[in-house]
Amino acid sequence: MAKFRPWYLLIPAVGLLAFIDLAPFFYTLYLSFQRWIMISPNPVTYIGFDNYQFLVNDAEFLNAFVRGVNFAVISIIIQLVAGLGTAFIMCRKFRGAALFKVILVLPLAIAPVAIGSMWRLMMFPGVGPIPYYLEHYLGFEWNLTGNSEMAFATTILMDTWHWLPLAALILLSGIAGISPSILESAMLDGVSSWQKLRFIYLPLIRFEMLFVVLLRGMDAFRIFDEIWMLTGGGPGGATRYLSVSLYTLILKAWDIGYGAAVSIVYLYVIIVLCWALYQAVMRVSD
Amino acid sequence: MSEEKKVDRRGYLKVGAVVVVAGAAAGGYMIGQTGKAPQTTTVTETVTETVAGTGTATQPSQYGDIEEFLSKVSGPYKGQTVRIANESTASGMWLNEFIRPRFEELTGIKIEYEFLGWDDAMRKERLDGAQKSGTYELYYIDEEEIAAEFFENGYIVDWNAFAAQHKDLLWPGYNVADLIAVKYFTYKGMLAGAPFEHFLRTIVYRSDLFNDPNEKADFKAKYGRELQPPTTYDEYAQTAEFFTRPDEDLYGHVCQPNPMSLPCDILIGLATYGVSGGGYTLGRRSSVKNGGMLDSENAIAWLTRYINLLPYGPKGVENFTWDDEGAAWSAGRVAQGWVWTENFAYIEDQEKSPKVAGNVMCTPGITEPKYYRYSTPYAYSDAGCMAMAASGPSKEAAFLWQQYATCQQTNEAQMKALKGVAPRASMLASPLADQLDAQYKTNAYAMIRRLATEGNLMGPFFPIAEEPVARDILWKHVEDAIAGKATPKEVLSAAATEIDDKWKTMGWPDLKGY
Q: Closest Cα to residue B462, out of B194, B122, B191, B143?
């Protein structure tokens, strides 16, 4: 009996997890096999795999997915590069360094919904200061509401502004962990700055870099609040990433069954993506 | 290296302290400012204030009867709370600020408003209705198809039936049939609730600019005709072009195409091109080949016109919400364009809109002669009611509040305070309507009266429970046209086909059934 005791002790934790995680998951899975449009008086009907069959041919879903991947990949690359640069700046001693660090991390403390609103006010044509100065001093018209590419770029800019400090702090921890003796040896050997970056820094902070990719990959792929506040998914669906599309599907069109199917696929994609990144992080860590 | 990277804790603390102190000081100052919000007053005070402030005769409110009645019958419900999910409309907020306190004082019933964006209000109401959680006593409903949906799903109760069963709680002087918007909230003979707001979405223009002799001369020189309020869309496009002067921050057009808002302008505009019911049929068909009109020549012509007018709007108009639209009017950035007349509450307020107050005039409705069919009502008559939630635990208390919030005396005060709202038919014909038109020079009440008499006031949608699904599909495609990614013909064709397919998957029988 004693040998089963550890299992008994696990029951409360497993029970709680099952309640919190598994119950909603299985309910969503169940819903994904139904036709249930909540605003319709028609009854809920079992339709097998129809929702999934529709999904693989649904241009809205596929486009939203591709847009989301583009957004995540471009955001992460920019944040990784800019984060590395920022981390190097933070390593240095200079006047106002403390103030720089405090200001740098402020965006992390702001709620996403507030960030979306702030950026909408800053970037809205005819109202925001940024388009105004761009037009008046550089003759460049930045149109968030009418130009798809500019709207897409603005969402990346906003996401970078929000999460760059996190990337910089994680990379800073990696740089801080590099033994000074390695850097001193390199200096004595007369290596250039580029060689130092290429052959010392980057290999030694691989773990932190992958960690940034893992964290930001998960976040960027499911971004919603900021985008909803900034563009509402427009113009012309240019920023309707998968989470925005899903929100519209479930909480505006009330297509619960199909929305559940999209959610399940969305969850599956995120799990696979995270698993692959996690494996990479672990391999580097080992 | 590690020495260099040491974090200067004292530096952090210093800067942090400065930030905290500055933040607290700014926050304190702002709280102090917000603390100076308008005081809550009783209806009588409001009426007096509003009228006295504008120098016209004061009509003391006649609350005697209903107040006495409410005091008498509300005893058993004292201490109950009526919770209301409401869109943050001007009328709803006005009721909460000025009418609620008096009602609470009279009855001991507490009224709790939860003001939300339209989307959120509908979302919360649907979830509450579906779960029967009883969180709210009253749901805000502003469209026929939502009333239809809520009735079909059993989320709300029939107001008429409830009144018949609770005659002892119905004030004898209360006339629900006089509320103009009752017809929009009646579905299969059932009434969703007493409408507490009713106003227009219409095109208005700046009378000071249109009557300016210099503008008139310039316009005549350029277009060879007199400058006057447009009566056709061709004329509208001409005046829009004429008044679009980005250097002066003045624009010739405004509307609200934001994807988070309803595509109201599209649907209203369709009616002015002779397409009723948003291009759908009651049999849930939208494409021409299936009997609808969503991808008809008329609809394509309208959407083309809608897109072509956008360049005359303020920068960012492609993403304007109704609040952005109202703000553009209030700031005097627009010479003509769409407006919700409920926003006259601040557009016609001298303090809030000094540049335009007294200079915003309603036009006679614009229609497109080439496409318009004279049997189609074309003026969007917007309204909102409070519907009694089937799961609400305090229905009787909610019923009493509905009557007080929509009785004639409240409506009178509401018209005076909000300037563009006309809940009751009898009051449209009263001297008060003319007096307000003369006072604010909007012509709003004369317009509502005329359109109502001519039969041109339309509810926005057919009472089709599944309409919001179609609306979202339509909007998704229209956005592509606004962004210039597809032509109006392409997007309407794609939308009509997709909507037809969707309705089919929602259990509607094949065409043979119709």
A: B143
Cα dist from B343 to B131, B250, B339, whole Å: 35, 20, 7
Of B344, B333, B325, B323, the closest CA to residue B444 belongs to: B344
Q: What would the CATH number be for the domain defined by A29-285?
A: 1.10.3720.10
- Residue B114: left (phi > 0), alpha (psi -120 to 50), or beta? beta
pLDDT > 70: percent of chain B: 85
**What is the widest separation between alpha-carbon atoms in chain B?**
86
Q: Residue type at A190?
A: G
Inter-chain residue contact B318 with A146, CB threshold 8 Å: yes
Beta bridge partners of B509: none
Closest chain A residue to B130 measured between Cα atoms?
A38
Q: Is the pLDDT of residue A6 over 90?
A: no
- Mutate: best of A121, A178, A252, partner B, most B CBs <10 A: A252
- End-to-end CA, chain B: 80
Domain-wise residue ranges, chain A: 29-285
Pair (B174, B284) in one structural domain? no
The 10s digit of each residue's pLDDT in B34-88 is 434 333 333 433 333 333 333 333 333 445 589 999 999 999 999 999 999 999 8
Most confidently modeled range among A147-156, A249-258, B363-372: A147-156
Peptide bond into A41 cis (omega under 30): no
My answer on whether B83 and B95 are in the same domain is yes
Region of residue B374 (left: phi > 0; alpha: psi -120 to 50; beta: else): alpha
CA distances in angstroms from A71 to A39, A75, A145, listed in the order given? 33, 6, 18
Report the run of H or E that residue B386 belongs to, with start and end.
strand B379-388
Contact B126 A232 (CB under 8 A): no
Apex B458 CA angle, B327 and B339, nearest 5: 10
Could you read off the pLDDT of A99-153 as tens digits, one per residue? 998 999 999 999 999 999 999 999 999 889 999 999 989 989 899 988 899 999 9
Residue with structure tokens 């590690």? B2
Query: Which domain covers residue B312, as residue numbers?
Result: 200-380+460-508
Chain B residues touching A148 at Cβ < 8 A: 483, 485
